[in-house]
Amino acid sequence: MSDTAKATETPMHTVGDSLRDARAAANLSVSEVASKLNLTISAVESLEANQFERLPGNTFARGYIRSYAKILGLDADQLARTFDQQVGSSAAQGAVHSIDRVGEVRSVSRGMLQFSAFVILLIILTAAYYAWQTFMVEQPEIGNKTAVFERVEVERADGSVHVQTLDELEDQAVAFALEANSAAEVLTLEVESGNDTDVEQPSASATDSETTDADARLPDQGALAEPDSATSQSQTAAESVTLAPGMGNAELSFVHDCWVRVADADGKEISSGLKRAGEQLNITGKAPLDVHLGYAKGVSILYNGEPVDFSAAVRGETARIKLGQ
């Protein structure tokens, strides 16, 4: 009984101890054994120190032990069984556990890749939608600005406001100009035909008598000079006449084609139409004068002889100015 108890208390000779003792007996170094097994020195040291957890797994550890035993001339099967007894049932569990961890890592990696790809795609779609919305919002604004520049508000005598395009106003101005030219031509033809009908050829005797009478009635040169001087004096006086109270005078000079409308303080339209580059418009009316310009950049204004700065009243290309207010 005492011998059995002593045998039980004697510690089991481990796999690592057997390998280390056999290597020392064969007079081999750790590096030499590692070179023959194609292992690292740390792997050989782990086998001899029974630190099998530092190896890739129990299956690999068992294979290393069998190879190590063959180099040293030991019984490989016996050492393998000793390893199983020493490790116990953890060998099978360790192998299964390692496989499960690999599968878990692969599954997690694939899921992360899919999620990352979805997030990137969502960001791209959001950016594209935002850019499209911005482009669609800017386009109507550009169209509205163009439409505003092409329209002009025309205030009628009754106070109502009528919106017309610059094309319509230009067509109306051209039509008015053609009508005025036609009326002027008709009037000229009527005057010429009337003169031809009324004038008769006088006879030679009548001409001589009329010449004699005319010579008798002709005043001297001094008498003729007096009316001329009187006329020039009256013209100078007319030019120096000041405006009546409540009246205003505006002089518009056009460097570009521009539609213009001018109304007095009572809303009465004084002038309206298209003015060409190089033309001037001089108007007088009850102040304040309401001036509408279709192309404000092409017009300069003098009011009562003083230049007018109406840059603050310009909206786009049009302007509305109250002169004398």
Q: Layout of helices and strands, plus pairs?
A:
Blueprint: H1 2-9, H2 15-25, H3 30-37, H4 41-48, H5 58-72, H6 76-87, H7 90-149, E1 151-155, E2 161-165, H8 166-198, H9 204-217, H10 221-239, E3 247-254, E4 258-263, E5 269-275, E6 280-286, E7 289-293, E8 299-303, E9 306-307, E10 314-315, E11 318-323
Antiparallel strand pairs: 1-2, 3-6, 3-8, 4-5, 4-7, 7-11, 8-9, 10-11
Helix pairs in contact: 2-5, 3-4, 5-6
Structural features, described:
The strands form 3 sheets. The protein has a 5-stranded antiparallel sheet with strand order 5-4-7-11-10, covered by helices on one side. The protein has a 4-stranded antiparallel sheet with strand order 6-3-8-9, with no helix packed on it. A two-stranded antiparallel sheet has the order 1-2. It is of the alpha+beta class. It is built from 10 helices and 11 strands. It has helices at residues 2-9, 15-25, 30-37, 41-48, 58-72, 76-87, 90-149, 166-198, 204-217, 221-239, and strands at 151-155, 161-165, 247-254, 258-263, 269-275, 280-286, 289-293, 299-303, 306-307, 314-315, 318-323. Strand 8 and strand 9 (306-307) form a beta hairpin. It folds into 3 domains: 2-88, Orthogonal Bundle (434 Repressor (Amino-terminal Domain)), CATH 1.10.260.40; 91-149; 153-190 and 246-325, no CATH class. The N and C termini lie far apart (135 Å). 58% of the residues lie in helices and 18% in strands. The longest helix is centred in the middle third of the chain and has 60 residues, at 90-149.
